Amino acid sequence: MVDIKKYFLQKSMTRVMVDEFLAKEYYNAEYAGSEISKTPMGTRVTIYAGRPAIIIGKDGKTIKRLAQILERYFNLESPQITVAQPEKPELNARVMAFRLAVTLEKGYHFRRAAFITIRKIMNAGALGAEVIVSGKITSERAKFEKLKEGIVYKTGNGLDVMVDRAIAIATLKMGIYGVQVVITKPLRTVDKILLKEKTETTSESTEAEVRVTNVRIIDEGGNISNTTAGGEEVGQKNE
């Protein structure tokens, strides 16, 4: 009889090991995550990356080699790999962390690269973003620099629901840089209160039309003149 706890524990460990392997192997492809599901035909593996072409390779050679590795070293039965791009890569912390690490390895200044990363995240609609770069960034002594914009939750329910966090490593000649990206997703926060605008109903006053049919006018001489509805004046002398 198969031990249920051992079975599910083994499946969880396999997912973690595959995720770590893909993140280390394809960080330059802006790896975002993976999903593994069992099908009657074998094992379906869905890989999300900002640059899927790097994982697929020329004529599919890279993805075929990856399928052999997953079947041989991770015991995945007949893996069928699908590579897709995330819906919004700029709101995925893992994609932005790997993108920043690759940018640093190309020789860009860390502060400029971090500002560009934060600007892209905020332009995508995020409520907040935070980038931390650590290492020998300005001198021989290691230190870190933090850049932040918007709202970034540190505790509470917002941290579990709305915050996405990822860590990446950039290898340079001076040493290793650590990169951490924190993104607050554009969801409705618990502490945000929306007030409904009061609609004022203006009642328009209707003006009634008054028609004068007969007016009697008495002048200083005592003469009386009647004005009819047609505008005709009829004079009458007062005796």
UniProtKB/TrEMBL annotation:
Keyword flag rRNA-binding: yes
CDD domains for this protein: KH-II_30S_S3_arch
Domain KH type-2: 18-97
PROSITE patterns assigned to the protein according to its UniProt record, in alphabetical order: KH_TYPE_2 (PS50823)
Family annotation (Gene3D superfamilies): 3.30.300.20, Ribosomal protein S3, C-terminal domain (3.30.1140.32)
SUPFAM superfamilies (alphabetical): Prokaryotic type KH domain (KH-domain type II), Ribosomal protein S3 C-terminal domain
Gene Ontology annotations of biological process type: translation
Cellular component GO terms held in the UniProt record: cytosolic small ribosomal subunit
Keywords noted in UniProt: Ribonucleoprotein, Ribosomal protein, RNA-binding, rRNA-binding
GO molecular-function term, one example from the UniProt record: structural constituent of ribosome
Subunit structure, as described in the record: Part of the 30S ribosomal subunit.
Family, as annotated: Belongs to the universal ribosomal protein uS3 family.
Function statement: Binds the lower part of the 30S subunit head.
HAMAP family recorded: Ribosomal_uS3_A (MF_01309_A)
Listed PANTHER family: 30S/40S RIBOSOMAL PROTEIN S3, SMALL RIBOSOMAL SUBUNIT PROTEIN US3
Protein name: Small ribosomal subunit protein uS3
Taxonomic path: Archaea, Thermoproteota, Thermoprotei, Sulfolobales, Sulfolobaceae
Gene: rps3
